[in-house]
Automatic annotation (TrEMBL):
<dbReference type="Pfam" id="PF06580">
    <property type="entry name" value="His_kinase"/>
</dbReference>
<keyword id="KW-0472">Membrane</keyword>
<feature type="transmembrane region" description="Helical">
    <location>
        <begin position="32"/>
        <end position="54"/>
    </location>
</feature>
<dbReference type="GO" id="GO:0016020">
    <property type="term" value="C:membrane"/>
</dbReference>
<keyword id="KW-0418">Kinase</keyword>
<feature type="domain" description="Signal transduction histidine kinase internal region">
    <location>
        <begin position="158"/>
        <end position="236"/>
    </location>
</feature>
<dbReference type="InterPro" id="IPR050640">
    <property type="entry name" value="Bact_2-comp_sensor_kinase"/>
</dbReference>
<keyword id="KW-0812">Transmembrane</keyword>
<dbReference type="GO" id="GO:0000155">
    <property type="term" value="F:phosphorelay sensor kinase activity"/>
</dbReference>
<feature type="transmembrane region" description="Helical">
    <location>
        <begin position="7"/>
        <end position="26"/>
    </location>
</feature>
<keyword id="KW-1133">Transmembrane helix</keyword>
<protein>
    <submittedName>
        <fullName>Sensor histidine kinase YpdA</fullName>
        <ecNumber>2.7.13.3</ecNumber>
    </submittedName>
</protein>
<feature type="transmembrane region" description="Helical">
    <location>
        <begin position="117"/>
        <end position="135"/>
    </location>
</feature>
<dbReference type="InterPro" id="IPR010559">
    <property type="entry name" value="Sig_transdc_His_kin_internal"/>
</dbReference>
<keyword id="KW-0808">Transferase</keyword>
<feature type="domain" description="2TM">
    <location>
        <begin position="357"/>
        <end position="431"/>
    </location>
</feature>
<dbReference type="InterPro" id="IPR025698">
    <property type="entry name" value="2TM_dom"/>
</dbReference>
Amino acid sequence: MNRKSLITISWITFFIGTLTFVFFTDEKTPELYLLNMVIAGLYSFTISIGNGLVNDFLNRKYSWVEDTRTRTVLGIIGTLLVNIVLVLFCNYVNFIIYQKQDFAEFFSGTMGFVNWFTINISLLISAVLHAKGFIEAWKSSTRQEVVQQKLIAKSANAQFESLKNQLDPHFLFNSLNVLSALIDENPNQAQRFTSSMSKIYRYVLEQKDKELVTVEEEIEFAGTYCDLLKTRFEDSVTFDFNVNEKDLKSYVVPLSLQLLLENSIKHNFATSGKPLNIEIYSENGYLFIENNLQQREQMKESAGIGLSNIVQRYALLTKQNVFIEKSSDFFRVKIPILTQKKTAMNIPLSQESIAYQRASKRVKELKGFYGNLLSYCLVIPFLIFINVRTSPDYHWFWWPMFGWGLGLSLNAVKVFGISSNWEEKQIQKILDKENSK
Protein backbone atom coordinates (compact mmCIF):
# COMPACT_ATOMS: atom_id res chain seq x y z
CA MET A 1 0.00 0.00 0.00
CA ASN A 2 1.48 3.33 -1.09
CA ARG A 3 1.73 6.64 0.70
CA LYS A 4 -1.24 8.14 -1.15
CA SER A 5 -3.50 5.33 0.03
CA LEU A 6 -2.39 5.76 3.66
CA ILE A 7 -3.11 9.49 3.47
CA THR A 8 -6.58 8.77 2.04
CA ILE A 9 -7.32 6.27 4.84
CA SER A 10 -6.17 8.82 7.40
CA TRP A 11 -8.61 11.40 6.03
CA ILE A 12 -11.42 8.81 6.08
CA THR A 13 -10.55 8.05 9.71
CA PHE A 14 -10.67 11.74 10.55
CA PHE A 15 -14.10 12.31 8.98
CA ILE A 16 -15.66 9.15 10.46
CA GLY A 17 -14.20 9.87 13.91
CA THR A 18 -15.39 13.48 13.81
CA LEU A 19 -18.84 12.51 12.52
CA THR A 20 -19.44 9.92 15.23
CA PHE A 21 -18.16 12.29 17.91
CA VAL A 22 -20.43 15.17 16.81
CA PHE A 23 -23.67 13.22 16.18
CA PHE A 24 -23.45 10.05 18.26
CA THR A 25 -21.47 11.00 21.40
CA ASP A 26 -23.38 12.64 24.24
CA GLU A 27 -20.39 13.88 26.25
CA LYS A 28 -18.02 16.13 24.29
CA THR A 29 -14.54 15.77 25.80
CA PRO A 30 -11.06 15.60 24.20
CA GLU A 31 -10.62 12.08 25.58
CA LEU A 32 -13.80 10.82 23.91
CA TYR A 33 -12.89 12.58 20.64
CA LEU A 34 -9.52 10.81 20.66
CA LEU A 35 -11.24 7.52 21.47
CA ASN A 36 -13.62 7.98 18.51
CA MET A 37 -10.59 8.56 16.30
CA VAL A 38 -8.96 5.36 17.53
CA ILE A 39 -12.10 3.30 16.90
CA ALA A 40 -12.59 4.91 13.46
CA GLY A 41 -8.94 4.17 12.67
CA LEU A 42 -9.43 0.56 13.79
CA TYR A 43 -12.17 0.07 11.19
CA SER A 44 -10.64 2.21 8.43
CA PHE A 45 -7.08 0.89 8.54
CA THR A 46 -7.96 -2.75 9.28
CA ILE A 47 -10.57 -3.09 6.52
CA SER A 48 -8.70 -0.92 3.97
CA ILE A 49 -5.32 -2.60 4.45
CA GLY A 50 -6.91 -6.06 4.40
CA ASN A 51 -8.77 -5.34 1.15
CA GLY A 52 -5.70 -3.65 -0.31
CA LEU A 53 -3.49 -6.68 0.34
CA VAL A 54 -6.03 -9.03 -1.24
CA ASN A 55 -6.47 -6.69 -4.21
CA ASP A 56 -2.72 -6.31 -4.75
CA PHE A 57 -2.21 -10.07 -4.56
CA LEU A 58 -4.93 -10.76 -7.13
CA ASN A 59 -3.64 -8.00 -9.42
CA ARG A 60 -0.19 -9.61 -9.42
CA LYS A 61 -1.60 -13.05 -10.22
CA TYR A 62 -4.46 -12.20 -12.59
CA SER A 63 -4.91 -9.36 -15.07
CA TRP A 64 -8.20 -7.48 -15.20
CA VAL A 65 -7.89 -7.41 -19.00
CA GLU A 66 -6.57 -10.87 -19.88
CA ASP A 67 -8.13 -12.86 -16.99
CA THR A 68 -11.30 -10.82 -16.42
CA ARG A 69 -13.56 -13.70 -15.42
CA THR A 70 -11.06 -15.38 -13.08
CA ARG A 71 -10.07 -12.04 -11.56
CA THR A 72 -13.71 -11.09 -10.94
CA VAL A 73 -14.75 -14.43 -9.40
CA LEU A 74 -11.74 -14.57 -7.10
CA GLY A 75 -12.21 -10.89 -6.27
CA ILE A 76 -15.82 -11.46 -5.20
CA ILE A 77 -14.93 -14.52 -3.10
CA GLY A 78 -11.89 -12.86 -1.55
CA THR A 79 -13.75 -9.62 -0.84
CA LEU A 80 -16.64 -11.44 0.87
CA LEU A 81 -14.37 -13.52 3.09
CA VAL A 82 -11.98 -10.72 3.99
CA ASN A 83 -14.67 -8.16 4.75
CA ILE A 84 -16.75 -10.55 6.87
CA VAL A 85 -13.70 -11.61 8.91
CA LEU A 86 -12.32 -8.09 9.32
CA VAL A 87 -15.67 -6.48 10.17
CA LEU A 88 -16.42 -9.14 12.77
CA PHE A 89 -12.93 -8.68 14.20
CA CYS A 90 -13.36 -4.89 14.48
CA ASN A 91 -16.84 -5.23 15.98
CA TYR A 92 -15.53 -7.78 18.47
CA VAL A 93 -12.80 -5.41 19.59
CA ASN A 94 -15.27 -2.51 19.78
CA PHE A 95 -18.25 -4.17 21.45
CA ILE A 96 -16.83 -7.08 23.42
CA ILE A 97 -13.36 -5.91 24.43
CA TYR A 98 -13.91 -2.14 24.72
CA GLN A 99 -17.63 -1.80 25.56
CA LYS A 100 -17.70 -5.05 27.63
CA GLN A 101 -20.95 -6.30 26.09
CA ASP A 102 -22.13 -9.90 26.32
CA PHE A 103 -20.61 -12.11 23.61
CA ALA A 104 -23.76 -14.31 23.66
CA GLU A 105 -25.60 -11.44 21.92
CA PHE A 106 -22.82 -10.74 19.41
CA PHE A 107 -24.71 -12.34 16.49
CA SER A 108 -28.22 -11.28 17.52
CA GLY A 109 -30.15 -8.16 18.40
CA THR A 110 -28.51 -4.81 17.95
CA MET A 111 -24.98 -6.20 17.57
CA GLY A 112 -26.20 -8.69 14.95
CA PHE A 113 -27.78 -5.88 12.93
CA VAL A 114 -24.63 -3.74 13.29
CA ASN A 115 -22.55 -6.68 12.03
CA TRP A 116 -24.81 -7.09 9.00
CA PHE A 117 -24.99 -3.37 8.26
CA THR A 118 -21.23 -2.83 8.65
CA ILE A 119 -20.42 -5.81 6.42
CA ASN A 120 -22.68 -4.42 3.68
CA ILE A 121 -21.13 -0.96 3.92
CA SER A 122 -17.68 -2.52 3.76
CA LEU A 123 -18.67 -4.60 0.72
CA LEU A 124 -20.13 -1.50 -0.89
CA ILE A 125 -16.88 0.41 -0.54
CA SER A 126 -14.84 -2.60 -1.69
CA ALA A 127 -17.05 -3.00 -4.78
CA VAL A 128 -16.47 0.65 -5.66
CA LEU A 129 -12.70 0.20 -5.33
CA HIS A 130 -12.72 -3.02 -7.39
CA ALA A 131 -14.79 -1.35 -10.11
CA LYS A 132 -12.42 1.62 -10.11
CA GLY A 133 -9.42 -0.73 -10.39
CA PHE A 134 -11.00 -2.62 -13.28
CA ILE A 135 -11.89 0.52 -15.25
CA GLU A 136 -8.41 1.99 -14.73
CA ALA A 137 -6.75 -1.26 -15.85
CA TRP A 138 -8.95 -1.55 -18.91
CA LYS A 139 -8.47 2.10 -19.88
CA SER A 140 -4.72 1.72 -19.46
CA SER A 141 -4.73 -1.37 -21.66
CA THR A 142 -6.86 0.37 -24.29
CA ARG A 143 -4.59 3.41 -24.32
CA GLN A 144 -1.54 1.21 -24.71
CA GLU A 145 -3.14 -0.69 -27.58
CA VAL A 146 -4.21 2.53 -29.30
CA VAL A 147 -0.71 3.97 -28.98
CA GLN A 148 0.80 0.71 -30.23
CA GLN A 149 -1.50 0.59 -33.25
CA LYS A 150 -0.77 4.24 -34.06
CA LEU A 151 2.95 3.53 -33.93
CA ILE A 152 2.43 0.54 -36.23
CA ALA A 153 0.41 2.71 -38.60
CA LYS A 154 3.05 5.45 -38.64
CA SER A 155 5.79 2.91 -39.13
CA ALA A 156 3.90 1.28 -41.99
CA ASN A 157 3.27 4.63 -43.63
CA ALA A 158 6.93 5.65 -43.28
CA GLN A 159 8.04 2.30 -44.68
CA PHE A 160 5.65 2.70 -47.61
CA GLU A 161 6.96 6.18 -48.38
CA SER A 162 10.52 4.85 -48.24
CA LEU A 163 9.67 2.08 -50.70
CA LYS A 164 8.02 4.50 -53.09
CA ASN A 165 11.04 6.78 -52.99
CA GLN A 166 13.14 3.95 -54.37
CA LEU A 167 11.26 4.18 -57.67
CA ASP A 168 12.65 7.51 -58.88
CA PRO A 169 16.38 6.73 -58.74
CA HIS A 170 15.78 3.12 -59.79
CA PHE A 171 13.84 4.09 -62.91
CA LEU A 172 16.21 6.92 -63.78
CA PHE A 173 19.29 4.71 -63.36
CA ASN A 174 17.93 2.00 -65.68
CA SER A 175 16.69 4.51 -68.25
CA LEU A 176 20.07 6.21 -68.37
CA ASN A 177 21.74 2.83 -68.89
CA VAL A 178 19.49 2.20 -71.89
CA LEU A 179 20.13 5.70 -73.21
CA SER A 180 23.87 5.29 -72.77
CA ALA A 181 23.80 2.10 -74.85
CA LEU A 182 21.69 3.75 -77.57
CA ILE A 183 23.99 6.75 -77.94
CA ASP A 184 26.75 4.47 -79.20
CA GLU A 185 24.52 2.13 -81.21
CA ASN A 186 22.04 4.54 -82.82
CA PRO A 187 22.16 8.30 -82.04
CA ASN A 188 18.83 8.95 -83.79
CA GLN A 189 17.07 6.34 -81.69
CA ALA A 190 18.78 7.81 -78.63
CA GLN A 191 17.21 11.18 -79.41
CA ARG A 192 13.73 9.67 -79.82
CA PHE A 193 14.31 7.65 -76.65
CA THR A 194 15.15 10.82 -74.74
CA SER A 195 11.94 12.47 -75.87
CA SER A 196 9.82 9.45 -74.97
CA MET A 197 11.64 9.02 -71.67
CA SER A 198 10.63 12.53 -70.62
CA LYS A 199 6.97 11.60 -71.15
CA ILE A 200 7.34 8.41 -69.18
CA TYR A 201 9.19 10.16 -66.38
CA ARG A 202 6.32 12.61 -66.15
CA TYR A 203 4.03 9.64 -65.45
CA VAL A 204 6.47 8.36 -62.84
CA LEU A 205 6.39 11.72 -61.05
CA GLU A 206 2.58 11.83 -61.20
CA GLN A 207 2.06 8.31 -59.87
CA LYS A 208 4.85 7.91 -57.33
CA ASP A 209 2.84 9.62 -54.56
CA LYS A 210 -0.12 7.30 -55.09
CA GLU A 211 -0.45 4.03 -53.26
CA LEU A 212 -2.62 2.41 -55.94
CA VAL A 213 -3.46 3.08 -59.58
CA THR A 214 -5.96 1.42 -61.89
CA VAL A 215 -4.86 -1.55 -63.96
CA GLU A 216 -5.86 0.43 -67.05
CA GLU A 217 -3.45 3.27 -66.21
CA GLU A 218 -0.65 0.84 -65.46
CA ILE A 219 -1.22 -1.09 -68.71
CA GLU A 220 -1.17 2.13 -70.77
CA PHE A 221 2.08 3.19 -69.15
CA ALA A 222 3.59 -0.29 -69.61
CA GLY A 223 2.65 -0.14 -73.31
CA THR A 224 4.49 3.15 -73.70
CA TYR A 225 7.47 1.76 -71.84
CA CYS A 226 7.48 -1.36 -74.04
CA ASP A 227 7.61 0.87 -77.12
CA LEU A 228 10.81 2.38 -75.71
CA LEU A 229 12.27 -1.06 -75.14
CA LYS A 230 11.42 -2.10 -78.69
CA THR A 231 13.23 1.01 -79.89
CA ARG A 232 16.40 -0.45 -78.51
CA PHE A 233 15.89 -4.20 -78.93
CA GLU A 234 13.73 -4.12 -82.09
CA ASP A 235 12.58 -7.68 -82.92
CA SER A 236 14.68 -9.22 -80.13
CA VAL A 237 11.85 -8.61 -77.63
CA THR A 238 8.12 -9.17 -78.09
CA PHE A 239 5.29 -8.06 -75.84
CA ASP A 240 1.80 -9.55 -75.62
CA PHE A 241 -0.95 -7.83 -73.56
CA ASN A 242 -4.04 -9.90 -72.76
CA VAL A 243 -5.76 -8.32 -69.74
CA ASN A 244 -9.46 -8.94 -69.10
CA GLU A 245 -11.59 -5.86 -69.55
CA LYS A 246 -13.33 -6.43 -66.19
CA ASP A 247 -9.98 -6.06 -64.40
CA LEU A 248 -9.07 -2.70 -65.94
CA LYS A 249 -10.93 -0.70 -63.27
CA SER A 250 -9.31 -2.58 -60.39
CA TYR A 251 -6.06 -1.54 -58.74
CA VAL A 252 -2.37 -2.44 -58.56
CA VAL A 253 0.61 -0.71 -56.99
CA PRO A 254 2.02 1.99 -59.31
CA LEU A 255 5.00 1.24 -61.57
CA SER A 256 4.82 -2.47 -60.71
CA LEU A 257 4.72 -3.49 -64.38
CA GLN A 258 7.60 -1.20 -65.26
CA LEU A 259 9.73 -2.74 -62.51
CA LEU A 260 8.87 -6.28 -63.61
CA LEU A 261 9.54 -5.50 -67.27
CA GLU A 262 12.93 -4.09 -66.30
CA ASN A 263 13.55 -7.23 -64.27
CA SER A 264 12.85 -9.43 -67.32
CA ILE A 265 15.13 -7.42 -69.59
CA LYS A 266 17.90 -7.22 -67.01
CA HIS A 267 18.13 -10.94 -66.24
CA ASN A 268 17.60 -12.42 -69.72
CA PHE A 269 19.44 -12.13 -73.02
CA ALA A 270 17.50 -11.36 -76.20
CA THR A 271 18.52 -11.81 -79.83
CA SER A 272 16.73 -11.96 -83.14
CA GLY A 273 17.34 -15.68 -83.23
CA LYS A 274 16.19 -16.21 -79.65
CA PRO A 275 13.76 -13.41 -78.86
CA LEU A 276 12.60 -12.72 -75.34
CA ASN A 277 8.81 -13.12 -75.23
CA ILE A 278 7.07 -11.22 -72.46
CA GLU A 279 3.37 -11.77 -71.82
CA ILE A 280 1.14 -9.69 -69.55
CA TYR A 281 -2.30 -11.12 -68.77
CA SER A 282 -4.87 -11.36 -65.97
CA GLU A 283 -6.44 -14.46 -64.47
CA ASN A 284 -8.26 -15.31 -61.20
CA GLY A 285 -7.71 -11.92 -59.60
CA TYR A 286 -4.00 -11.73 -60.42
CA LEU A 287 -1.95 -9.88 -63.01
CA PHE A 288 0.70 -12.14 -64.57
CA ILE A 289 4.03 -11.02 -66.05
CA GLU A 290 5.66 -14.02 -67.69
CA ASN A 291 8.67 -14.47 -69.93
CA ASN A 292 10.55 -17.39 -71.44
CA LEU A 293 13.70 -18.04 -69.42
CA GLN A 294 16.90 -17.12 -71.23
CA GLN A 295 18.94 -16.28 -68.19
CA ARG A 296 22.13 -14.38 -68.75
CA GLU A 297 25.24 -14.72 -66.64
CA GLN A 298 25.42 -12.04 -63.98
CA MET A 299 28.74 -10.27 -63.58
CA LYS A 300 27.70 -9.23 -60.08
CA GLU A 301 24.90 -10.12 -57.72
CA SER A 302 21.65 -8.23 -58.32
CA ALA A 303 20.42 -5.75 -55.70
CA GLY A 304 16.90 -7.13 -56.14
CA ILE A 305 15.23 -3.75 -55.78
CA GLY A 306 12.41 -4.40 -58.26
CA LEU A 307 10.86 -7.60 -56.91
CA SER A 308 11.48 -6.87 -53.23
CA ASN A 309 9.95 -3.41 -53.63
CA ILE A 310 6.74 -4.82 -55.07
CA VAL A 311 6.51 -7.59 -52.46
CA GLN A 312 6.97 -5.16 -49.58
CA ARG A 313 4.50 -2.60 -50.91
CA TYR A 314 1.81 -5.23 -51.36
CA ALA A 315 2.51 -6.58 -47.86
CA LEU A 316 1.62 -3.15 -46.43
CA LEU A 317 -1.63 -2.97 -48.37
CA THR A 318 -3.15 -6.44 -48.36
CA LYS A 319 -2.83 -9.96 -46.99
CA GLN A 320 -2.75 -11.32 -50.54
CA ASN A 321 0.70 -12.51 -51.54
CA VAL A 322 2.89 -11.80 -54.55
CA PHE A 323 3.86 -15.12 -56.15
CA ILE A 324 7.13 -15.75 -57.98
CA GLU A 325 7.38 -18.91 -60.06
CA LYS A 326 10.45 -20.14 -61.90
CA SER A 327 11.15 -23.23 -63.97
CA SER A 328 13.68 -24.25 -66.59
CA ASP A 329 11.43 -22.77 -69.30
CA PHE A 330 9.78 -19.66 -67.85
CA PHE A 331 9.82 -17.01 -65.13
CA ARG A 332 6.47 -15.73 -63.87
CA VAL A 333 5.35 -13.14 -61.31
CA LYS A 334 1.75 -12.90 -60.06
CA ILE A 335 0.68 -9.64 -58.41
CA PRO A 336 -2.76 -9.29 -56.76
CA ILE A 337 -5.42 -7.18 -58.44
CA LEU A 338 -7.18 -5.24 -55.67
CA THR A 339 -10.90 -4.56 -56.07
CA GLN A 340 -10.99 -1.55 -53.74
CA LYS A 341 -8.61 1.18 -52.79
CA LYS A 342 -6.72 0.67 -49.55
CA THR A 343 -4.00 2.54 -47.76
CA ALA A 344 -0.99 1.40 -45.83
CA MET A 345 -2.68 2.60 -42.64
CA ASN A 346 -5.97 0.74 -43.15
CA ILE A 347 -5.02 -2.50 -41.41
CA PRO A 348 -3.56 -1.01 -38.18
CA LEU A 349 -6.33 1.60 -37.83
CA SER A 350 -9.10 -0.96 -38.32
CA GLN A 351 -7.53 -3.16 -35.64
CA GLU A 352 -7.29 -0.16 -33.36
CA SER A 353 -10.93 0.74 -33.99
CA ILE A 354 -12.14 -2.81 -33.30
CA ALA A 355 -10.06 -3.04 -30.11
CA TYR A 356 -11.35 0.32 -28.87
CA GLN A 357 -14.99 -0.57 -29.61
CA ARG A 358 -14.70 -3.89 -27.79
CA ALA A 359 -13.01 -2.23 -24.83
CA SER A 360 -15.68 0.49 -24.65
CA LYS A 361 -18.47 -2.09 -24.80
CA ARG A 362 -16.81 -4.20 -22.10
CA VAL A 363 -16.30 -1.21 -19.80
CA LYS A 364 -19.94 -0.20 -20.27
CA GLU A 365 -21.12 -3.71 -19.33
CA LEU A 366 -18.92 -3.79 -16.23
CA LYS A 367 -19.99 -0.30 -15.14
CA GLY A 368 -23.64 -1.34 -15.43
CA PHE A 369 -23.06 -4.48 -13.36
CA TYR A 370 -21.09 -2.73 -10.63
CA GLY A 371 -23.68 0.07 -10.53
CA ASN A 372 -26.38 -2.55 -9.98
CA LEU A 373 -24.26 -4.25 -7.31
CA LEU A 374 -23.63 -0.98 -5.48
CA SER A 375 -27.34 -0.14 -5.50
CA TYR A 376 -28.14 -3.58 -4.12
CA CYS A 377 -25.59 -3.29 -1.31
CA LEU A 378 -26.88 0.16 -0.40
CA VAL A 379 -30.65 -0.30 -0.67
CA ILE A 380 -31.10 -3.78 0.84
CA PRO A 381 -29.47 -2.89 4.22
CA PHE A 382 -31.69 0.22 4.32
CA LEU A 383 -34.80 -1.92 3.70
CA ILE A 384 -33.70 -4.32 6.43
CA PHE A 385 -33.29 -1.39 8.80
CA ILE A 386 -36.79 -0.09 7.95
CA ASN A 387 -38.26 -3.60 8.30
CA VAL A 388 -36.67 -4.21 11.71
CA ARG A 389 -37.76 -0.80 12.99
CA THR A 390 -41.35 -0.86 11.70
CA SER A 391 -42.45 -4.52 11.74
CA PRO A 392 -39.88 -6.75 13.46
CA ASP A 393 -42.30 -9.70 13.57
CA TYR A 394 -42.66 -9.97 9.77
CA HIS A 395 -39.42 -10.01 7.75
CA TRP A 396 -40.68 -8.84 4.36
CA PHE A 397 -37.18 -7.68 3.34
CA TRP A 398 -36.40 -11.24 2.13
CA TRP A 399 -38.60 -10.78 -0.95
CA PRO A 400 -36.76 -7.78 -2.49
CA MET A 401 -33.42 -9.15 -1.33
CA PHE A 402 -33.89 -12.51 -3.12
CA GLY A 403 -35.71 -11.05 -6.14
CA TRP A 404 -33.14 -8.35 -6.77
CA GLY A 405 -30.35 -10.78 -5.91
CA LEU A 406 -31.57 -13.21 -8.57
CA GLY A 407 -31.57 -10.44 -11.17
CA LEU A 408 -28.10 -9.41 -10.07
CA SER A 409 -26.87 -13.00 -10.36
CA LEU A 410 -28.25 -13.31 -13.90
CA ASN A 411 -26.55 -10.04 -14.82
CA ALA A 412 -23.26 -11.37 -13.42
CA VAL A 413 -23.61 -14.56 -15.48
CA LYS A 414 -24.20 -12.49 -18.60
CA VAL A 415 -21.27 -10.15 -17.99
CA PHE A 416 -18.72 -12.67 -16.70
CA GLY A 417 -20.11 -15.94 -17.92
CA ILE A 418 -21.63 -16.81 -21.26
CA SER A 419 -22.66 -13.43 -22.80
CA SER A 420 -21.41 -12.29 -26.21
CA ASN A 421 -18.20 -14.31 -25.98
CA TRP A 422 -20.26 -17.51 -26.03
CA GLU A 423 -22.43 -16.18 -28.88
CA GLU A 424 -19.35 -15.32 -30.95
CA LYS A 425 -17.94 -18.81 -30.43
CA GLN A 426 -21.21 -20.44 -31.52
CA ILE A 427 -21.45 -18.22 -34.60
CA GLN A 428 -17.85 -19.05 -35.51
CA LYS A 429 -18.58 -22.80 -35.10
CA ILE A 430 -21.54 -22.52 -37.49
CA LEU A 431 -19.47 -20.57 -40.03
CA ASP A 432 -16.64 -23.10 -39.84
CA LYS A 433 -19.15 -25.93 -40.33
CA GLU A 434 -20.67 -24.21 -43.38
CA ASN A 435 -17.26 -23.48 -44.89
CA SER A 436 -16.19 -27.11 -44.53
CA LYS A 437 -19.14 -28.36 -46.59
